[in-house]
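Thread: Modeling a multi-component assembly for a lab meeting

Hi all, long-time lurker, first post. My supervisor asked me to bring a structural picture of a complex we are working on to next week's group meeting, and I have zero experience with this. I have the sequence lines for every component (704 residues in total). Could someone generate the structure of the whole assembly? Inputs are pasted exactly as I received them:
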Amino acid sequence: MVTLNDYLLVSGLLFTLGFAGVLLRRNIIIIYMALELMLNAANLSLVAFSRFNGEAGLPNYNGQMLVFFIITVAAAEVAVGLAIIVALYRARQTTNVEDINTLKF
Amino acid sequence: MQLPWIILFTPLLSALIIATLTKRWRNLSAFVSVAAVLVSLAASIKLFCTPLPDAATAVLQIPWIDLGTQLQLPIGITLDGLSKAMLIVVTVIGSLIHIYSLAYMADDEGKSRYFAGLSIFMFSMLGIVFANNFAMMFIFWELVGVSSFILIGHWYNKPAPPAAANKAFITNRIGDFGFMLGILLVWVTTGTINFAELTTKLGALQAAPALATLTALCIFCGTVGKSAQFPLHVWLPDAMEGPTPVSALIHAATMVAAGVYMLARVFFLISISATALETIAWIGTITAVLAALMATQQNDIKRILAYSTLSQLGYMVMAMGVAAPEAGMFHLFTHAFFKALLFLGSGAVIYACHHEQDIWKMGGLWKKQPITTATFAIGTLALMGVYGFSGFFSKDSILIAASHHNQAIFILGLISAFLTAYYMTRLFVVVFFGKARTEHAAHAHEVPILMWAPLMLLAIPAWIAGYEKFIHPFLPVHEHGASSVPMIASTAAVLGILIGFFLYRGRDKDPIVIPLLANKFYFDELYAALIRNTQDRLAGVSDFFDRWILDAGIVRLVCSGGTYGLGFVLRLFQVGNIQGYAFLFGAGVIGLLYFVIFK
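Re: Modeling a multi-component assembly
Sure thing. I ran the full set together rather than chain by chain. Output:
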C-alpha cells in the first residue's frame, strides 16, 4: 500500500534535486529545468494531499485546482523565461550564470 | 448691528486694496486709506450716538474656533462705555493723523506702504478696543505690534529705524509672553476667557490668593511690554525713529495706551489681588518718575515727548494700581488728545526745520510758526496740568486717588508732575523762544493747511476734554470734591514752569549737564551687558551642543556611521551571482522553517 508519506518523500526528493540543480549547475537552461522540477515536486505533493485528504470517497479538489494553476503559471513563466534567456544569449553569447553577474552592462 | 463690523473691517479692506491693487499709485493709496478711516470715524460717531440695545454684547459674536465645552474662541464685540470712549479716541485721532500724514509724507517713496501700515494699524487697534475675550485681544495685541514694527522701520534704508523696529518688537515679545501665560492661567483656573463670562466665574481665583496674584501679574506683563513700563520701557524712545505721525498715533495716543485700556477692561480680575495692585501701582510710579527724570536731559524734541509719554503712561498704570481705573482711563482719554497734538506739533517743527530734531538747533520759531506755537502751547499746558486745561483734571483725579491710597506714591506722583512742567518748559522755551540758532531754523515757515488744520482740531479737545460736561458722555468721571490736592499739584507745576523758564531763557546750550540722566540711567548699556552675559553665554552653550553633540555626535557618528556600517555589511551579500542569491534564499527558507516548525 502506497501511503501519503511515500508520495511526500518522492516529492521532497524531487524538490531537493531541483534545488541542488539550481544551486550547483552553471548552465542557465539546466537551472531553468531544475526550477521546473521544483514546481512539479510541489505539484506532486499537492495532488497527494488532495488524494489522501478526501471526504466521503471524493478527493479534496482544492489541491487539484491549485495544481492546474501552477501548471498554467509555469507555462506562462516558461514562455517569458525562455524569451529572456534567448535575449540574454543574444546580448552576451553565453548561458553560463557565472558570466551573468551584473544588473547593467 | 452692522456698525461695529463696518468700523472694524473698513481699514483692513483698505490695507488689502492698497497691498494688492493700488500699490503703484501712491496718491491713490493715500486716498483709499484716508477714505477708509473716515468711514470708520463716521460709523463710530453714529455708533456712539446710538444707545446700547440690551444684551448687544451677546449677539455681536461669530464663532471662530470651537472645541466643544473645553474652549470656544469667538470673534466678538464688546460694546460698553469703556469701548465706546476708546473707539472715539482711536478713530478721531486716527483720522486727524491720516490727514496730517497726507502732507507730512507727501513726497515719500514708500507712501503706499506707509498708508497700508496705518490702515492695518487702525484695524488692529480697533480689534483690541472691541475684543470681548482674551484670545481675540491677544491676536490684535500682536497685530498692533506687527504694524508698529512695520511703521517704525518705515525708512528701512537708514540703519537706525530697522534696529529700533527690532528692539520694539523683541522687547514687546517679553511682555507678551507673560501676557500669554496669564491668559492660559485664566483659562485653566476659570475655564473661560470671555470677559463677560469671567465676571461670574471668579470663584476659583478668589479662593486662591497666590494664584490670583500670579495671574494678575502675568496679565500685567502684557501692559509692561505694550505700554512701555519699567523695566521694558527702553523700546519706546527708540521707536521715535519712525515717521512723526506714526509716533503721534501709535507711540503716544493709542497703541501704548492699549495696555492701560486692557487693565481697565479686566480690572475686575486684577483687583482680586491686593498684592498685584500694589506692584502695579509701584511699577507705574517708578516709570513716571524715572521717565520724567530722563526727559529733563534729552535734546531730541521727539525723544523728550517720548519720555513724557512714558511718564504719563506711568501715571495711568499708577491709577490702575491705586484702584482708580476710571481716573486712569480719564487720563488716557485726555492724554491721547494733547500728546497726539504735541507730537504732530513737533512734526510740524521738524518739517519746518528740514528734518532737524535737536532742540538746540531750533529757536525763535514762534514768529515763523504762530499756529504751531499756539497749538503746541495748549498741548504743553495740558500736559503740565495747568488749571483749566484737560491734563489738570485727569492728572488731579489720579493724584487724589493716590493720596487716599498711599502717601509715598502720591509724593512721587507730585515730583513727576513738577518734573513734567520743568522739562516741557525747557522744551518750549528752547524751541520757540530766543533766537534762531541755525540757518534752517531761521528760514522756517508755517506748515501747509493739511498739517495745521489737524493741529487746531486736536487743540480743542486737548483744552476742554477735562471738563465734566465734555467728558461725561464718554466716561463716568465725577468732579472731585473739596481737596487740597489740586492746589498742591498746581503749585508743583507752577514751580516747575518758573524754574524751567528762568533756567533756559535766552540760553544757547544746556546749563545743566547730568550724564546719568542724559544716558537714560544706562538702561540700554545695562541690558546690553545683561544679554552679553546671559543670552550670549547660553547661545554659546547651545552652539556647542548643536555643533558637537547633535551634529558631530548624533548626526555624523550615530546616524551617518550606523547607516554606513549597516550598508557595508549588507553590501557583502550583494555578490551579483544568481546562485549565491538562490543559496541565501534557500538558507533563509530553511531557517524560517526551522523557527516556525521546531521552535
